[in-house]
Amino acid sequence: MTVLGNRFRLLHRLGAGGMAEVYCARDRRLGREVAIKLLNAACSRDPGIIERFRQESSALARLSHPNIVTLLDTGETDDGRFYLVMERLRGEALSELFRRLRGRGEVVSWRRLVGMVRQVCMALQAAHSQQIVHRDIKPSNLFRLEHSLEGEDMIKFSTSGSPSSWRARTPGRKSRFT
């Protein structure tokens, strides 16, 4: 198995986006599982994508909120691929939950959905207070954790396969994102 930074042993792939893959890894120093978002080789040669990846890691490093995935470390492989090390989330993306329920002819109750949306809004408020915006809000970037909080779903923003989900807002620059 591949080891990144002489510390993180890749165990298996969790998913992939257009520009990066996410792996489950073992932190050999701390003895715990983490998630590694590894930029693919082609994107690692594109200066613009590398800059967006660095912006995302910088933005995530400034955020500390129970509804936002925690960034633990960053690094670069021997062959020049950049990666983020994050807490390992256990559960499912909201897109998977919605798909599974739809397949059974069910939907999420409005009470349950209100609880989920409330957590998303709290995470966005925390990010916005740091002048950070999320540019790709969708169910596949929101994760429902296996454990619940007093009977309520626990929702976290995860990072997607795109390297530019979290960005610091540029003062004076108009944006079509809120």
UniProtKB/TrEMBL annotation:
Family matches, as InterPro entries: Kinase-like_dom_sf, Prot_kinase_dom, Protein_kinase_ATP_BS
Keywords for the protein's UniProt record, in alphabetical order: ATP-binding, Kinase, Nucleotide-binding, Serine/threonine-protein kinase, Transferase
GO MF term list: ATP binding; protein serine/threonine kinase activity
Domain of life: Bacteria
Domain Protein kinase: 8-178
Catalysed transformations (reactions): L-seryl-[protein] + ATP = O-phospho-L-seryl-[protein] + ADP + H(+); L-threonyl-[protein] + ATP = O-phospho-L-threonyl-[protein] + ADP + H(+)
Membrane-spanning segments: none
UniProt keyword annotation of Hydrolase present: no
Annotated protein name in UniProt: Serine/threonine-protein kinase
